[in-house]
């Protein structure tokens, strides 16, 4: 029996997909791989195949429904990141919980956060200017903006916000161990449980207050369900955005796009979408889908019990879906990227992340048009683990 290629594949550039992914997409996709944890899986890298797997009812996210034990779930992290959340559920339970999200976490609620987010961004730039260059953009801006926004959304007191940053880092980055991540989940759930109980006694108009008081067709959420929904939003609304802000700024400064956005601020919305397509945030594919019935993907017949990993970074550079996909085109119009997924499990925090990234880019390019890297691009140190990638620090000057 031949040895399956180990997954994730090695990469020679922090913000470029591995060349092995390109080989997989242009070869006989999908390909069989052995992830770092769990059973072997089929790796899907083509755009149309990815959309199909993410939206077809032939694939599920509930490992119990698929008859797959937790320790056999194909994954790239030691702890199953989505464990206990509605991200690993299928209809009808997933549909039930998603209704509560749509009822409470509305586009209007996100837009209501825009003025406050702009005030936070402006305050952070004020602090940067007062401090003076050089400074670490990640520490002074990228890390603070999203955690303050998500805590404003949830109604978390200012004094507790550092705890949320630490919990999110432990859960998603795995700088330590699976035991440390599990302990952080337990601590966060205990904290959120107390917060939810307080909201039940003293209603508020923040998101946790809305979740604990919401009723949909006579149904309401348990405290555990509120906790798990908040965990998903925390990952989408803090950790990913905190990483993408310095990623985006690095690419823009290194490639000349920053000066263009400073001169053409109307391009910021399309630039955000293009950077979401172009930058592979998650190190490699994660969140396995489980085959529930015989189904063909890319000419390969899959069977119940098989597992599939979808790789958006490869799909987002598929020339069958995007013109000149290896070029970062800040004015790209037709851009149906998969950075937020697709189908039933599309990221619930997509609107929040978009809003934050738009404000971050518009504020920095508008107020600091002379921003530049304080050290050569090839000397920027990178944090690349089994889940996210970003600069360890991004020293800038102006």
Description of the molecule:
This protein is α+β, with helices and mostly antiparallel strands. The chain has a single domain, classed as Cytochrome p450 (Orthogonal Bundle), CATH 1.10.630. It is 47% helix and 10% strand. The chain is built from 15 helices and 13 strands. The strands form four sheets. It has a six-stranded mixed beta sheet with strand order 1-2-3-9-6-4, covered by helices on one side. A three-stranded antiparallel beta sheet has the order 5-13-10. A two-stranded antiparallel ribbon has the order 7-8. A hairpin with a 2-residue loop joins strand 7 (295-297) and strand 8. Helix 5 runs parallel beside helix 15 and helix 9 crosses helix 11 (223-255). The radius of gyration is 21 Å and the shape is globular. The termini are far apart.
Please outline the helices and strands.
Blueprint: E1 6-7, H1 19-26, E2 31-35, E3 41-44, H2 47-55, E4 59-60, H3 93-104, H4 107-112, H5 114-131, E5 135-136, H6 137-142, H7 144-154, H8 161-173, H9 178-201, H10 207-213, H11 223-255, H12 257-263, H13 268-278, E6 289-291, E7 295-297, E8 300-302, E9 307-310, H14 312-315, H15 350-367, E10 372-373, E11 382-384, E12 389-391, E13 395-397
Parallel strand pairs: 1-2, 3-9
Antiparallel strand pairs: 2-3, 4-6, 5-13, 6-9, 7-8, 10-13, 11-12
Helix pairs in contact: 5-7, 5-15, 7-11, 8-9, 8-11, 9-10, 9-11, 11-15, 12-15, 13-15
Keywords: Heme, Iron, Metal-binding, Monooxygenase, Oxidoreductase
Family: Belongs to the cytochrome P450 family.
Pfam families: p450 (PF00067)
């Amino acid at each position: 029996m031949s040895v399956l290629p180990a997954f994730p594949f090695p990469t020679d550039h922090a913000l470029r997909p591995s060349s092995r992914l390109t080989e997989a997409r242009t070869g006989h996709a999908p390909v069989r791989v052995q992830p770092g944890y769990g059973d072997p899986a089929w790796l899907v890298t083509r755009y149309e195949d990815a959309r199909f797997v993410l939206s077809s009812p032939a694939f599920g996210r509930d490992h119990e429904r698929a008859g797959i034990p937790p320790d056999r779930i194909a994954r790239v992290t030691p702890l199953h990141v989505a464990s206990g959340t509605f991200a690993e559920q299928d209809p009808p339970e997933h549909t039930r919980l998603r209704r509560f999200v749509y009822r409470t976490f509305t586009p209007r609620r996100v837009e209501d956060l825009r003025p406050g987010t702009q005030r936070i961004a402006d305050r952070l730039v004020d602090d940067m200017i007062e401090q003076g260059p050089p400074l670490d953009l990640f520490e002074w801006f990228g890390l603070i903006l999203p955690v303050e926004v998500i805590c404003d959304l949830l109604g978390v007191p200012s004094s507790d916000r550092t705890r949320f940053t630490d919990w999110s880092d432990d859960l998603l980055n795995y700088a330590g161990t699976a035991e440390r991540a599990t302990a952080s989940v337990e601590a966060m759930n205990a904290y959120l449980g107390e917060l939810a109980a307080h909201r039940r006694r003293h209603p508020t108009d923040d998101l946790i207050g809305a979740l604990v008081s919401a009723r949909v067709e006579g149904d309401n959420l348990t405290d555990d369900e509120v906790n798990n929904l908040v965990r998903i939003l925390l990952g989408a609304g803090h950790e990913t955005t905190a990483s993408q802000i310095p990623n985006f700024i690095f690419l823009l400064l290194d490639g000349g796009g920053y000066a263009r956005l400073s001169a053409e601020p109307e391009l910021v919305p399309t630039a955000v979408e293009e950077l979401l397509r172009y930058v592979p945030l998650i190190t490699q594919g994660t969140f396995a889908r489980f085959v529930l019935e015989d189904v063909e993907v890319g000419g390969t017949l899959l069977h119940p019990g098989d597992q599939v990993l979808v790789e958006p970074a490869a799909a987002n550079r598929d020339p069958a879906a995007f013109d000149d996909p290896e070029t970062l085109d800040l004015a790209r119009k037709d851009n149906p990227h998969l950075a937020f997924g697709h189908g039933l499990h599309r990221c619930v925090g997509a609107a929040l992340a978009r809003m934050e990234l738009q404000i971050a880019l518009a504020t920095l390019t508008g107020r600091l048009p002379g921003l530049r890297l304080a050290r050569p691009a090839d000397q920027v140190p990178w944090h690349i683990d089994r889940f996210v990638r970003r600069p360890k620090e991004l020293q800038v000057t102006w």
